Amino acid sequence: MTSAGSGQQPSLARALAVARHGTLWLVPTLLSALVALGLTLLYMGGILNPNGNLRDLPIALVNTDQGPPLPGQQQTVGTQVSRSIAAATPAGTVEWRRLSQAQMQDELASGKIYGALVIPTDFTTSVSALTTPRATARPALTVLTNPGLGSLGSSLAAQITQRAAHQASLTIGRQLTTRSSAQDADSTTRALLGDPITVTTKVGHPIGRHTGLGLTAFYFALLLVLTGFVGGNIINNGVDAGLGYTDNEIGPWHTRRPTVPISRTQTLLLKMLMTAGITVLTTSLLMIAAIGILGMDAAHLPLLWIFSYCASLAVGLGVQAINAAFGGIGQVVSMFVFIALALPSSGATIPLHAVPGFYRFLALFEPMRQLSDGVRAILYFDARADAGLTRGWVMIAIGVALALLFGFGMTLYYDRKGLHRLTTRPAATADQAP
């Protein structure tokens, strides 16, 4: 036992000697603390109060009521209901879009509205008949959902429209109860008239069964970002190890290849070319796994593949540019750019209309919003350009251009300044640890 303990002591003493250097702790401690604080604020700040943060959620209000108006009134009941709903909604929370039936269907099919409230053509007639022997059915309002915009967004819209329809029913009921009282209606009839409207909820724009209730677009886009991000860092580390600029260590095996004299710009070009080639394989495997093996509902497969390739490539090129500019800390920087800031501002799980303004600002340029909109347009909205596909393509092109300009701009600057990576230093002792 004594012999074993004495054999371990020098290693323990050496580790403790190195650990006593405060500067060795400083950078990892600060970075870890900042990452933990930043991630918590970013992720939790965007999800805690969707109803309280609701701003201008687009919902269609379709009034097809053809009357005629009730005795003593100049407007149909449908017109009264549509006006009262818009007036009763808290200012700024919902954008009620008064559309025709055809316009509503078009905006549902292009993902521009989260739902709709439809007033039928015979609404006034059926309301009027309630106080007469001619009544055959209760008046009905229809709530339409749009699950392609995500289960939470569709649910928020459905709750709002159902609540508005119920309030309209109570308002109409008070008017009918007054009339029925004047006509000596019995108590059962008056109770029925107090809440006379039936509200039916239907899917306005159906999506497939294997779509994760409208979440496959988000997770597929997330996979594109992750494969670009992780793949880019794997290529970055692999090239650096292959060129002899970093050690290659796997478990107990450690190698260090001879250093190849190569400029920063040439290294970045090599990494970007490899990223472009390897992304072909990763994109193909991603689609094979998601669609071929798991059975995800997907149409427009050639378009989905080329969009997925370009999206993942844009992320991978961005990772290479950031790593080239920032060096060792580049992986943390790219993680915030492509993951930490992008996920809560994507609008794919919680609508951008239901998050604080800071996240809506991030959504203007963060890649996840652009990619998820493009994927969603292909998967759920028949690849319509106005459903987010055009914006996706434009932002991918801008992302690639920025990655090339920023990456090569920084490496050319470093090379011209003589800031080469090829350096040699003597080995340090434990007492000389930073």
Give a structural overview.
This is YhgE/Pip domain-containing protein. With 434 residues, this protein is an alpha/beta fold. It has 2 domains: 57-203, abc type-2 transporter like fold, CATH 3.40.1710.10; 214-416, no CATH class. The protein contains 14 helices and 7 strands. It has a 5-stranded mixed sheet, sandwiched between helices. Strand 6 and strand 7 form a beta hairpin. Residues 1-7 have low confidence and may be disordered.
Overall shape: it is: elongated
> What helical percentage do the residues reach?
55-70%
**What's the rounded overall pLDDT mean?**
87
| Total beta strand runs | 7
Give the biggest beta sheet. 5 strands, mixed
Low-confidence stretches: 1-7
Order of helices and strands: HHEHEHEHEHHEHEEHHHHHH
Key features of this structure:
single chain; 434 residues; alpha/beta; abc type-2 transporter like fold; 2 domains; two-stranded antiparallel sheet; 14 helices; 7 strands; disordered N terminus
Summary, kept brief:
With 434 residues, the protein is an alpha/beta fold. 58% of the residues lie in helices and 8% in strands.
